[in-house]
Amino acid sequence: MTEENNNNTSASTPNQQPQSAFATLSKKFTIPPPPKTIADGVKRDYVLVGGLAATVIALTAGIYNHSKGGSQLTTNRLLKGRIWAQAFTVVAMGWYAFAYQRDLDEAEASKHRKVILT
User: Fold this and answer.
1) Which element (helix H / strand E) includes 2?
2) Cβ pair 96, 109 in contact under 8 A
3) b/e for 61-81, b at 16 or more Cβ within 10 A?
4) Given a cut of 90, is residue 3 above it in pLDDT?
5) CB 28 within 8 A of CB 98
6) What is the CA radius of gyration of the chain?
7) Mean pLDDT (whole number) for 93-113
8) Of 1, 43, 52, 91, whose CB neighbour count within 10 A is largest?
9) For residue 86, which of 67, 66, 59 has the smallest C-alpha distance?
10) How confident is the model at residue 9 (pLDDT cuts 50, 70, 90)?
């Protein structure tokens, strides 16, 4: 029984192992390098900065309203808004990573393209 298992494992090559779903997905999403300055980061990632600001403002307003004894309905709406702002920010981060990888793939493909002039 062990000889059969050894024969089966030696016949398969390590390069043909199936990749996990995370490994396949991580090839499609690459995090861009950090900007040199904060101003460059804000210019490049203004959507993420806006989502971050919306999340912080909604959270701060919700906590402030709750601590001052404001309406529970208002507090609930503010904190639900925070959840939506945070969800938007996470989706935007994924989109930025996907678009950055797509741009890298297109740049790599353009290096290997041959131009035939006739």
Assistant:
1) helix 2-11
2) no
3) bbeebbeeeeeeeebeebbeb
4) no
5) yes
6) 24
7) 84
8) 52
9) 59
10) very low
In the numeric block, which tokens belong to residue 40?
Answer: 């460059």
Could you tell me the pTM of the whole model? 0.65
Q: Which amino acid is at 90?
A: V
Asked if 79 contacts 58 with a C-beta cutoff of 8 angstroms, the reply is: yes
Q: Is 37 helix (H, G, I), strand (E, B) or coil?
A: coil
State residue 18's pLDDT score.
67
Instruction: Report yes or no: 65 and 71 within 8 Å, Cβ to Cβ.
Output: yes
- pLDDT for 16 equals 58
Q: Nearest 5 degrees, angle CA 92-CA 98-CA 102?
A: 140
Cα–Cα–Cα angle for 84, 87, 90, rounded to 5 degrees? 155
- Mean pLDDT across the stretch 30-47? 84
Distance between CA atoms of 22 and 35, rounded to whole angstroms? Answer: 26
